[in-house]
Specification:
It is a single chain. By secondary structure, this protein is mainly alpha-helical. Helix content is about 75%, strand content about 0%. The protein has one domain. Helix 1 runs antiparallel to helix 4 and helix 2 packs parallel to helix 4. The N and C termini lie far apart (about 65 Å). The model has no long low-confidence stretch (mean pLDDT about 90).
């Protein structure tokens, strides 16, 4: 008699991984700046003030989400194409790091992690695709931490 134990898989679904990352970076940043307008006496119309920041975060972060989903959704159905998508999205996460304030690198990174096999129901990849998936996940996590703690701290200290 053989007994087979199946390990419980604890991975996020692709929707939660990518959507949650977008919410915890781009949307949270927007909410923090709306709070700055509502609860401080800072000039919202100052050059690099809250309104300008909200506009740029929404634009760049939104474009990042659209591009990430336009690449990831069609490629996720085929493991070979997903491998290429993980590399492309992981590279985009790295290349867009200068605009980290927008949340776009985190969204690209989460999408790379999805296609690289780190999300529930995705095909595990190997080689460079796996490396870019892990790098993308690290970027997403670091950016979430930076947005939550850095954004919140900057709002409390001003």
């Amino acid at each position: 008699m053989t007994t087979e134990t199946k390990a419980t898989e604890r991975r996020l679904s692709p929707a939660v991984l990518v959507g949650g990352t977008f919410a915890l970076t781009t949307l949270l940043s927007i909410v923090l700046h709306v709070g700055e307008i509502l609860f401080t006496d800072h000039d919202p119309h100052a050059p690099e003030g809250p309104i300008a920041t909200i506009e740029s975060v929404a634009l760049v972060g939104g474009i990042g989400l659209v591009i990430a989903l336009a690449i990831a959704v069609p490629l996720s159905r085929d493991p070979q194409r997903a491998k290429v998508g993980a590399i492309v999205l992981g590279a985009l996460a790295i290349v867009t790091l200068p605009v980290f304030w927008s949340g776009a690198p985190a969204t690209f990174g989460a999408s790379a992690a999805w296609l690289g096999g780190l999300a529930r129901g995705s095909h595990p990849q190997t080689g460079p695709a796996r490396g870019f998936a892990i790098a993308g996940l690290v970027i997403a996590i670091l950016e979430i931490v930076a947005t939550i703690f850095g954004g919140t701290a900057s709002q409390l200290l001003t």
